[in-house]
Amino acid sequence: MKTDRYRLERILEIGSQLQDVVNRREITAEDVENNLETQWLITTPLFNIGEQANCLSEVFVSAHPEAPWTQIAGLRHRLVHNYEGTNWSIISTVLLEEIPAFTDQVRAILDSISEEEAGS
C-alpha cells in the first residue's frame, strides 16, 4: 500500500525534476502556450503530481488544508480529460509560479510531519 509519505515524496521528486527541466530548457510562458512539444513535455509530470495529490488520504488532506491538494488533483483531471480544451496560459502560470511554491510547501510538510502521521 502506498502511504501518504510515499505520495508526498513522489510529488516532491516529480516537481523537482519538472522544475529542473523547465530551468535547463529555459521554458517560458510563450513556450507553454504555443509549442506542442513543450506542452507534451510538461503534461506527464503534471498528471503524475496531480494523481499523487488525488490519492492522499482524506485524513491527511484534512490535517493539511494549507496546501492546494484539490486544485492540483483537479488540474490533473482537466489535463487528462481535456474538458473544453486546455487553457495553456493557466498551465504556464501553474508551471512557472505555482509548482515551485507547491513543491516548497510539500517539502515543508514532509519536514514537519511524523512518520506515523504520514502513514509510514
Describe this protein's structure.
The chain is mainly α and 120 residues long. The protein has one domain (4-111). Helices cover 75% and strands 0% of the residues. The protein is built from 6 helices and no strands. It has helices at 4-24, 29-34, 36-54, 58-63, 69-81, 88-112. Helix 1 (4-24) packs antiparallel against helix 3, helix 1 (4-24) packs across helix 6 and helix 3 crosses helix 5 (69-81). It is globular.
Short structural summary:
The protein is mostly helical and 120 residues long.
DSSP strand tally? 0
Could you say which overall geometry the principal axes of the C-alpha atoms support? globular
Low-confidence segments:
none
Report mean pLDDT, rounded to a whole number.
93
**How are helices and strands ordered from N to C?**
HHHHHH
Determine the number of helices (DSSP H or I, runs of at least 4 residues). 6
Query: What fraction strand?
Result: under 5%
Class from helix and strand fractions: mainly alpha
Helix content: over 70%
